[in-house]
Amino acid sequence: MTMILPRTTVTEEDWLQAVDRLAAGKCTLLGLWGDDGCVHMALLTGSDIAVLTYVCKVGTYPSVGARHPAAIRLERAIGSLFGFEAVGSPDTRPWLDLGFWDVKRPLGAQKPAREPTPYTFLPAEGEALHQIPVGPVHAGIIEPGHFRFTANGEHVVRLEQRLGYVHKGIESLMRGASLEQAAKLAARTSGDSTAAYSLAFAQAVEAAVEVKVPPRAVYLRALMAELERLANHFGDIGAICNDASFALMHAQTGILRERTLRAAQACFGHRLMMDAVVPGGVARDIAADGPSAVAALVAEVRKVFPRLIELYDSTASLQDRTVTTGIAKPEYAKSFGAGGYVGRASGRDFDARRAPGYAPYTELSFEVPVLQDGDVNARVWIRIREVDESLKLIDQILERLPAGAIAVPVEANGGTREGLALIEAFRGDVLVYVRLGEDGRIERCHLRDASWFQWPLLEVAIEGNIVADFPLCNKSFNCSYSGHDL
Fold it and tell me: How many CA atoms lie within 13 Å of 129's alpha carbon, on the beta-carbon side?
């Protein structure tokens, strides 16, 4: 979904009415972010997106999180970056600012020297409770994040996350960047979703400057997105099984992931297809032997993958670990607007490729699998079914791939312009907002990962489970640290 703004600047009364609609479940929160002197809120109603702007005349705005908990961390991030206060918020602790920065509010109008502020974790009351701090440095080669468990014996009573350790200042670096520079920054927001972020950024820019991308580029972008989805789903399915001590699945799906990455390299010259999608189209055409490499991959997956799924489904010890473990309740998934396999495994029937929708998916046939159980097993099965759908999509893309140009020039000069895009990454929907200045450079760019609305659900899903099941639950969510921490 791409849309040309303008936004709607609203009064406090209108803003609070929108919050009431969120609290009543009549719309879904897509994003909440700061800007120069104001905050913006993106809402989804059916297939329609609206962006509301509230001017923070005295550095404050009415809290959305006070009525709609999904907004709390977004408000805390706005406070860390801009210094705006969400009046009435139940949690005003800093979020991205961990006390390491030289200044407070780096994107705000003033940048005072930072003063260290102690961080207080939320309390838990009860008999025989103890706390287990984990991270931010972990035993594996993984991204940093702190997890504070409060447990009674082995059973988790409360989990509280503290993230922000992978903050790279992407939105700050975006300011004043050229389109070329900004596209590279967007591609590095979360490396495992580089094609998705590049696509979202490109579509937002194209909406702002009203550029139509050549049909061949549109289909090549979709091919990249589906290859990226395949590679990540293979990796996740294997890693979840590995955390349940079933290393055979990990090894076999690892082979499929490697073959997918090699096919991507054969097609576009890079295993992750980084910087292959650019505003106006794609940076490189598919190699002459690319279609045959992808066709060979699809044939291999269809030969091997069903056997692996049969193995997963018939291994009782594995099912014992995944079934009924880490349940994210459907009502929470709906309230938080959780996307991707997290939301679809908990009954939320949403996929940005289908609705609001964008080309070429509006011309292709595919199904969106949805389950209601919300446990680790359901999140595995959503991935399994999405692999099958991606294979069908790749078949259609290769069959219909049109000839012609792969890019058009993007002229961004000539007045301030804004655009917004919502696309489906392998984790779920990614939202990108851009505003271009008169010189064609970026004035403001906001990138919202699906993980913002999934991380909080992990805290709830682990409650009542044993501490030893946390790695399994965590991997079944596989939220992005880098994409979340910006």
Answer: 14
- Preceding peptide of 306 cis, ω within 30°: no
> Which residues are paired to 61 by β-bridges?
86
Q: Which residue has the tokens 């909406």?
A: 207
The SS3 assignment for 152 reads strand
Burial 113-130 (b: 16+ CB within 10 A, else e): eeeeeeeeeeeeeeeeee
Q: Cα–Cα distance between 178 and 82 in angstroms, integer?
A: 23
DSSP state of 454: T
Closest CA to 257 of 209, 212, 308, 291: 308
Longest dimension (CA), the chain: 69
d(CA 44, CA 40): 14
- Give the separation between CA 211 and CA 280, rounded to whole angstroms: 7
224-262 burial code (b ≥16 CB/10 A, e <16): bbbbbbbbbbbbbbbbbbbbbebeebbebbbebbebbbe
Q: Return the bridge partners of 426, or none.
A: none
Contact 413, 386 (CB under 8 A): no
pLDDT in tens, 205-237: 999 999 999 999 999 999 999 999 999 999 999
For residue 102, count CB atoms less than 10 angstroms from its CB and return exposed for 0-12, middle for 13-18, buried for 19 or more.
Answer: exposed
**Which tens digit of pLDDT belongs to each residue from 108-142?**
877 777 677 788 888 888 888 999 999 898 877 78
Q: Domains, the chain, ranges and CATH?
A: 1-109 (3.30.460.80), 170-485 (1.10.645.10)
Query: In this structure, are residues 486 and 172 in contact, taking their beta carbons and an 8 Å threshold?
Result: no
Which residues contact residue 450 at a Cβ distance below 8 angstroms, ignoring those fewer than 6 apart? Answer: 338, 339, 340, 342, 425, 427, 428, 429, 430, 480, 483
Residue 3 clears pLDDT 60, i.e. is over it: no
Which amino acid does the sequence have at 299? A
Annotate 354-364 with b (16+ C-beta within 10 A) or e (fewer).
Answer: bebebbbbeeb
| 342 DSSP 8-state letter | H
Give dist(CA 234, CA 273) in Å, integer: 17
- Buried b / exposed e over 294-318, threshold 16 CB at 10 Å, is beebbeebeeebeebbeebeebeeb
- Is the pTM higher than 0.90? The answer reads yes
Looking at residue 174, its pLDDT comes to: 95
